[in-house]
């Protein structure tokens, strides 16, 4: 005998009234000039990652910077955003195949569901992946609840 699906009232979820997001959402990275990118919300991934290519490290006013390009839309290599950010560090990150990669890390703001906050974002080639961006658990912790059965709940 199959049990009936229960509707969950997320408005009563916690004392902090966390917003609910789906397993995929459209986010913006305003500091990088990216108005929208489809992101997979990945609570299995500690850090967030963005598809980036043509990475160039340089100095500006004594700060280490990184310039890079992004194709924010999947299967669209014509629309390219060239941007730059202060380089925070290089960090070893395990990719989905379990292999360690040394990736550049930047701090940038992300917008979702009417909220804007700062996240650490690793830059890597995600060309063959289904999403140009992963929003990891550090970025969503204490801000959102994730409904894995829904998509684009908070996207514009």
Task: Provide tags for this entry.
single chain; 156 residues; mainly beta; Cathepsin D, subunit A, domain 1; nine-stranded mixed beta sheet; 3% helix
- Described by the principal axes of the CA atoms, the overall outline is globular
**First-last Cα distance:** 39 Å
Overall residue-averaged pLDDT value? 88
Instruction: Sketch the topology as an H/E string, one letter per element.
Output: EEEEEEEEEEHE
What's the architecture in CATH terms? Beta Barrel
Let me know the largest β-sheet: 9 strands, mixed
Strand content is: over 45%
Q: Give the beta-strand count.
A: 11
Supply the number of helical segments: 1
The tally of domains stands at 1
What features would you describe in this structure?
It contains one helix and eleven strands; from the N terminus they run E-E-E-E-E-E-E-E-E-E-H-E. The chain is mainly β and 156 residues long. It has one domain (18-147): Cathepsin D, subunit A, domain 1. The strands form two sheets. It has a nine-stranded mixed β-sheet. A two-stranded parallel sheet has the order 1-11.
What's the short version?
The chain has 156 residues and is mainly β. It contains one helix and eleven strands; from the N terminus they run ββββββββββαβ.
Question: What's the topology here?
Answer:
Elements: E1 19-22, E2 24-29, E3 34-42, E4 48-51, E5 53-60, E6 63-70, E7 81-94, E8 100-112, E9 115-124, E10 133-136, H1 137-140, E11 144-147
């Amino acid at each position: 005998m199959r049990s009936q699906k229960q509707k969950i009232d997320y408005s009563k979820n916690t004392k902090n009234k966390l917003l609910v997001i789906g397993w995929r959402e459209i986010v913006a990275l305003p500091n990088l000039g990216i108005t929208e990118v489809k992101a997979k919300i990945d609570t299995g991934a500690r850090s967030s990652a963005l598809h980036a290519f043509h990475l160039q490290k340089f100095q500006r006013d004594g700060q280490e910077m990184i310039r890079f390009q992004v194709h924010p839309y999947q299967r669209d290599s014509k629309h390219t955003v060239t941007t730059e950010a202060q380089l925070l560090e290089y960090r070893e990150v395990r990719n989905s195949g379990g292999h360690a990669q040394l990736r550049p890390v930047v701090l940038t703001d992300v917008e979702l569901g009417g909220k804007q906050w700062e996240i650490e974002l690793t830059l890597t080639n995600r060309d063959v992946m289904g999403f140009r961006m992963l929003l990891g658990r550090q970025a969503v912790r204490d801000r959102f609840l994730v409904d894995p059965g829904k998509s684009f709940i908070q996207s514009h």
